[in-house]
Amino acid sequence: MLVALGPSAPDGDAVGHLKKAADPSAIEAGHLLYVPCLRAAVHAAGAIDPVDGWLPGRCLSAIAVAAAALVVAGAARRVAPRTGGTAGLLFAGCAAVFGAGSTVESYGITLLAIAIVASASLRALDGSAVAAGIGGAAAGVAAGLHVGVAPLLVLPVAAALIGERRSLARAALAATAGAAVFLAPLVAVAVARSLDAAGTFALVRSADHGLPGFEGPWLVLSLPFGVARAIVDCPFPWEHPLSFALRIGPALVVLAAGAGVLARGARRAPEPARLLLVAGALPLAAIAVAYYASEPERWVVCLPLAVPIAAAGANARSLVVFGVALLALHVATVAIPGAVDPRPRERARAMSERLETRELVVSPGHGVDEIVGFFERVEPERLLLAYEAGRLRSAGDAVLDEMATRVRAAIADGRPVRVVRVFEDDGDARGWKDLKRIFGIEREQVIERLEVIGVRRPPAGAAFARVEPRALTGSSGSKAGSSR
Description:
This protein is mostly helical. The chain contains 22 helices and 5 strands.
C-alpha cells in the first residue's frame, strides 16, 4: 500500500538521492550510509538511471517502515505487555511515518534503525550484552543514515549503566560498536578523498546545507504545529490556505489527545524503560526545536521512542481505533489524492519543454523546479537559489551577484538560460519563504537583477523564461517558452 499510494512525482530530495545513487562516487554528508543503501537497492532492481530507480527506492522505504512498525510493536511489549502489540499500528498510522515509507527519503530506513536501537536498549536493561552491542551498532547505523539522530549513540550505553545489572563492560561494548559503525564511513570518505581535518569538518558541516533552521519567536507556534503534522498531515497556511483551515483543527485535537495518552503512559511505564526512552527522545526533540521545528520530519524520529510509552497509556482497543483512524484519514485525504494528482508531473514537464543538457536553469528551489528535466532524463546545470544561499552562507547581494555571474558566464559560453518559478507567481511559497526569512532575499530583487542582465518577463501563462545566447550578445531580448 505504501508503494501504491506514494506521490505521483518525486520531490527535490528524492531526485537528489536518486541521482547520487546512480553515481558511484557521490556521497551525502548528512546521509553517508543512506546513499549506499539506496544504490544497492536500485542496482539490485536493475535500474540504470534515476528515473528507473524511483520505484525500487520507494520499495526500500516501504519495506523499512513496515519492518520498523513490527520492531516498535516488539519494543512496546516490553513497556506495556498487554497493549504493546497494537503499538505498531499506531506508529504506522502517523502521517510522517506513512510519508517516509512512500517516497525515496532517508527517514524510512532511519526509522527502522531507531526502532532497533529502542528495542535493543530496552533488552539491554535486563543485562544482555548482545542487546547492548546490537543497540550500539544500530545507533551507529541510524546516525550514519541521518546524522541528526547521532545523540542516539548514548542510548544503549545508558541502558547498560541504568539496568538491573549495571555493567561498564557492556556500556563500553555499546559505545565502541556505535562509534565504530558511525565513524567508519566518515573515515573511509576522508581517506578516499584525501581530506585533512579541516576538510573533514567542512564535509560534516555541509550536512545542514547552510540553512539556519531556528524559527525564533515563531517557535511557540511552529513547535506544536510540527509535532501535530508528524501525526496528522497539515500543509502550511501559505501553501494551501483552505486545506490548512480544514485540517489544523483535527490536527491539534489529535495532538492534544496524543499528549494526554503519552503523559498517562509515562506515569504507568516501568521506571527504567520510561527514563531510557525519554532520555533518548529529548535530545532528538532539542534538535527538532533548533532546526525547522515546523517540519514533521524533525519529529518523526522521536516516534519509535514515544510510541512504546504511549502504549502504556491506553488500552489495546483504543490504540487500534486510534491507529486505524489515523491511517484511514491519511490515506483518504493525502495519500490517494497525492498518488493520482498529475499536476506536479505536468508542471515539471511544462517547465522542461525543449530542455537541453547545456542549459543553466535558475529557480528558487524547494518546489517542482527541482524535478525539471527528471522525467525527460535531461540533467542541466542548476542554480537553486535557496541552496546557493546556504552554500555561500551569505545573504542578499552576495547571492544575487553569484546568480548574475553564473547567468552571464552561461551566456558567454553560448549556453541558454532558463528561469522557472521566478517571474510567474504559481502560489507556491517554497524556496521563496526561506530566501526571505533566512537570507533577506525577496522575489522582486531576483526579478530586478535578472531584468538588469537582460532576462525579460515571459508572456502570461508561460512556464518559464528562456534566454538564447544571441539574445544578450546583441540586445537585451529573451525568448520565453510556452506552458503547453
